[in-house]
Design brief:
Layout: H1 2-15, H2 19-41, H3 45-78, H4 82-96
């Protein structure tokens, strides 16, 4: 009977010293780790939208640069520069997405 009373009072006695808090922390640690891993593994819709917008802006910037390069090389090609014609064709192919 005496042991039963001591066992009942033990958690109350330990609550003040922080041992009970440590036990709860150890017990919830796997749940917190799993929750954090799930957050890192998933992508929110807004994150996906931001990534897609960034990709579109980068592609548009690249197309603008290719268009300027194409115009410059076209002028040089018209003047008879064969190397410029090859560069112009390469820029055109990249603008179309050709490999």
């Amino acid at each position: 009977m005496r042991n039963l009373i001591l066992c009942g009072l033990l958690p109350l006695a330990l609550a003040g010293c922080g041992a009970a808090g440590a036990i709860v922390g150890v017990a919830t640690a796997p749940i917190k780790v799993a929750s954090k891993a799930a957050d890192l593994a998933t992508t929110s819709q807004s994150e996906s939208d931001e990534k897609r917008g960034r990709e579109i802006r980068e592609r548009e910037q690249r197309l603008g640069a290719l268009e300027r390069e194409y115009r410059r090389q076209s002028e040089k090609c018209a003047a008879g520069n064969a190397r410029a014609c090859a560069k112009r064709d390469a820029a055109y192919d990249e603008m179309l997405g050709a490999p």
